[in-house]
Amino acid sequence: MSESADHVPPVSSEVTPAGPAGYPVSVSAAPQESFVRFLPLVKWLLLVPHYIALFFLAIGAAVVAFIAFFAVLFTGTYPRGMWNFMAGFYRWTLRVTAYLMLMTDRYPPFTLEETGEDDVRLSAEYPERVERWRPFVAWLLVIPYLIVASLILMVAQICSFLAFFTIIFTKRIPDGIFDVMRVGLNWQMRANFYAYWMSTEYPPFSWDDE
Questions:
Q1: Angstrom distance (rounded) from CA 122 to CA 27
Q2: What is the DSSP string of the chain?
Q3: Which residues, in sequence order, are bridge partners of residue 124?
Q4: How confident is residue 78, by pLDDT bands cut at 50, 70 and 90?
Q5: HSE-up of 197 (CA within 13 Å, CB side)?
């Protein structure tokens, strides 16, 4: 087999923002010109170290969210360091999910920070002020959006299944299939940020904002 998992073809274009002007959370991505044909067969296995790392990061995120609950309640602000950790946790999760869903052949880095080589990126703005009531009701307010986001993510996962075969036979993912996967991750990230009062602007019920 001449193709190697170490070889990652360049993306077809630069990653560009996917969110609407002014919206604080968005996922952006661009498909590669060519994917490694048989890499989808083992991606789930290659991610085992990340599963372990994310398990411990999720415990840390739960502790941080608990502390942030009281910080917002008493001060009306989300401590910047805690917000950065939570955003980094979601960024790490996004990279792993995108790799598992076959959207990129670039192995996710073990870092909370954004890197210049990220093919799938999370853009998020820190809210200077968070109303003190949000920790009590944000999870409730986001339910309608979260329901729709979950349905879209299910469709995105179906598209990932289809992408498995398009990569095996053509080494490509059709743009339409790739866009559905990106949109699914975009909706999910926005729901997460609002539910955990990391964003104070309600996510738009818009399929795609590009």
A1: 5
A2: ----TT--PPBSS-----SPTT-SEEEEE--BS---TTGGGTHHHHTHHHHHHHHHHHHHHHHHHHHHHHHHHHHSS--HHHHHHHHHHHHHHHHHHHHHTTS--SPPPS-SS--TT-SEEEEE---S---TTHHHHHHHHTHHHHHHHHHHHHHHHHHHHHHHHHHHHHS---HHHHHHHHHHHHHHHHHHHHHTTS--SPPP--S---
A3: 25
A4: very high
A5: 29
Q: pTM to 2 decimals?
A: 0.87
| Cβ atoms of residues 24 and 127 within 8 Å | yes
Tokens at residue 154, please? 């299910």
pLDDT of residue 15: 36
Q: Residue 22: its pLDDT value, please?
A: 61
